[in-house]
Amino acid sequence: MNVLDFARAIFGLAFVLGLIGLCAWAARRYAPQLLAKLGAERGERRLQVMETLVLDPARRLVLVRVDDEERLILLGEGRELIEPRQPAERPTPAAPAPEPAPVETPRPFARLNLSALNKGGLK
Fold it and tell me: Which stretches does the entry tag as region Disordered (predicted)?
């Protein structure tokens, strides 16, 4: 293998890595907009992610709406905590402000133990 073949192989590798990088950049830049357009064409969806909040690198809160019910999900560290709740009523601008609702005591999160499923033979 002479120097010319070696240089051609190095430049070919650099060109292919450059194309991969360009495709990755284009996917990060334009893919969310294209997926949103495709999702709008499918019609009404039952499941929506309303909001997410990153708590730390290992955990995040996700507010999900399924039909007319909202659920708050804590994801991370091998366990999920789910709290079902009804969506908040938003007053219309023309309507007078509603009276404050009585304060309810918060319900504890329902704990899902996924390690118990793994012990049961799921592989």
Answer: 83-109
